[in-house]
Amino acid sequence: MEGRSDTCEVDGDVRTNGTALSVTLVPAASWPERHEWMINPYSRRFASLRKVTVTQLQDRAAAPPCTVTHDMPAVLFGIGGYAANYWHAYADILVPLFVASRRYHGEVTFLVSNIQFRPRWLVKYRAFLQGLSNYDLVDMDGDAQVRCFPRVTVGLRLDKELSIVPELVPGGRLSMADFTGFLREAYALPRGAAASLAREPEKKPRLLLIHRGHYRRILNEPEVARAAEEAGFEAVVTELRGGGDTPEGEVEQARVVNSFDVVLGLHGAGLTNAMFLPPGGVLIQVVPYGNMEDIARAEFSEPATDMGLRYLDYSVGAEESSLMETLGPEHPAVKDPASVHRSGWDKVFELYLAKQNVRINVTRFAPTLAQALDHLRRQ
């Protein structure tokens, strides 16, 4: 129970009960005392999910009898929390689940709670889940069986945002390069390397400019796309909707992104798609005005580097922000962003993420595009 997450590794004679949402460790004979822990099965402990009761029994006679016996381990986790957001789906569940279960090479059963609140989530990520487990998952909310396992991992551990700390991986080192390699395998992504202009100097690398259709938009997308073309890219503007609610949609979106060498977009969950880029690709994050660099980089800078991508960002100036027009140059959000940050997250989100669009100065942006192209030239 440290860091962001609560987790418990239970080894021995382990029995689960879905309706009670309980995990019980049964002694071979007896233990001096009984212990009990409450574990949040979601990787961020402050998310509001029903907790799992983990009990170490004192007396074997008090154990519920097994109705189903499994000879492989299990991982118990909950969906919900923030998992409707595409970035959180990967950062909070899919990456930690990979860390918890990859060591078993498919010989693991997933016990999933809170399904009734996100029934389409498991459908959408079916290809991912089937890549990690050879068995049907168990809906813990409706499971009346007492299942016996030799080991159960309760809860998912989040050590680093949208990334992996190799030395903290149970059962052996894994990295984000291993994770993106698994994605290419699970989603049958064809490209394992970005364009190399050193080997193919005449080739135009492909740049995907993510279109946002609601808020936090790039208002001059055609101009930015032309600037990318003039810099030497083949530029395409498209909207990425998190793959929809079907496994086919998620896989198809991953394959689309994998066909590009560069992803460019304004800060938001859509940039999570950069994990489908081939290794050696580039992620360019446009950071909204308002001292948003630390937040934006925490979510994408180190993760992208850990994936084997080149990370670049471009910070929007006040003159490029729609806030200059809608609020005026004397408004605190424009004149003194630090004061907005002191007001708390709700104000920061409202002003800089929910109410801001940007018009990129393509002359000022040109050196960032040149850096991306130079990276591909040196590969």
TrEMBL record:
<comment type="pathway">
    <text>Glycan metabolism.</text>
</comment>
<protein>
    <recommendedName>
        <fullName>Glycosyltransferase 61 catalytic domain-containing protein</fullName>
    </recommendedName>
</protein>
<keyword id="KW-0333">Golgi apparatus</keyword>
<dbReference type="GO" id="GO:0016763">
    <property type="term" value="F:pentosyltransferase activity"/>
</dbReference>
<keyword id="KW-0325">Glycoprotein</keyword>
<keyword id="KW-0808">Transferase</keyword>
<dbReference type="GO" id="GO:0000139">
    <property type="term" value="C:Golgi membrane"/>
</dbReference>
<dbReference type="Pfam" id="PF04577">
    <property type="entry name" value="Glyco_transf_61"/>
</dbReference>
<dbReference type="InterPro" id="IPR007657">
    <property type="entry name" value="Glycosyltransferase_61"/>
</dbReference>
<feature type="domain" description="Glycosyltransferase 61 catalytic">
    <location>
        <begin position="86"/>
        <end position="283"/>
    </location>
</feature>
<dbReference type="InterPro" id="IPR049625">
    <property type="entry name" value="Glyco_transf_61_cat"/>
</dbReference>
<keyword id="KW-0328">Glycosyltransferase</keyword>
